[in-house]
Amino acid sequence: MAYFFRIEDALRSNYRPCKRCRPDLFQANYEPTQEAVGQVQQLLESKYDQSWTLEKLSNHVGISACHLQRLFKNKTGLSPRQYLNRIRIQRAKRLLLNGKMNNVEICYAVGFREPNQFYAAFRKETGSSPLNFKRSQ
């Protein structure tokens, strides 16, 4: 068994860096799981209007659905579904204030498949209905 005090010495002796802790990145706070969570966040932020399931998201990042759910909740404080709904509601609020679309059109534009889901998520996130939100602004 060989011990090295510097990464460069180990590399010169033809040892490879650990694939889990990645000491070659020289980052004290590197967390491999953060990369998967970040990929899911970027995906949901850019394609919020598409239909997403936990299974689809987990296939995209290459980890199990249960593991993704747990990691995502630990890192963000929200489940992937809650995170997606928050993004959709933020977009819906902007569209409501724009005033060019009605509630049902906004519902479908931000990715909800049913108006009831949209109204329930909007009320949960903002504490009011879309119409009351628009009137209060």
Describe the structure.
Keywords: Activator, DNA-binding, Methyltransferase, Transcription, Transcription regulation, Transferase. Its cofactor is Zn(2+). It comes from Marininema mesophilum. This protein is elongated. The chain has eight helices and no strands. The chain has helices spanning 7-12, 32-46, 54-61, 65-76, 80-98, 103-109, 115-126, 130-136. The relative contact order is 0.09. The termini are far apart. By secondary structure, it is mostly helical. The longest helix is centred in the middle third of the chain and has 19 residues, at 80-98. Among the domains are: 1-27, no CATH class; 85-136, Arc Repressor Mutant, subunit A (Orthogonal Bundle).
Element layout with pairings:
Elements: H1 7-12, H2 32-46, H3 54-61, H4 65-76, H5 80-98, H6 103-109, H7 115-126, H8 130-136
Helix pairs in contact: 2-4, 2-5, 3-4
Quick summary of this structure?
It is built from eight helices and no strands. With 137 residues, it is mainly alpha-helical.
Architecture of one domain, CATH level 2?
Answer: Orthogonal Bundle
**What is the percentage of strand-forming residues?**
under 5%
What string, H for helix and E for strand, traces the elements in order? HHHHHHHH
What is the rounded Rg?
21 Å
Helical region count? 8
Overall 3D shape: elongated
Find the count of extended strands (DSSP E, 2+ residues).
0
User: Would you give the CATH topology of one domain?
Assistant: Arc Repressor Mutant, subunit A
- Ranges where pLDDT stays below 50 over 5 or more residues in a row are none
Q: State the CATH superfamily name of one domain.
A: Homeodomain-like
> Share of helix among residues?
55-70%
- Average residue-wise pLDDT: 89
End-to-end CA span: 68 Å
CATH class of one domain reads Mainly Alpha
Structural class: mainly alpha
Largest sheet: none
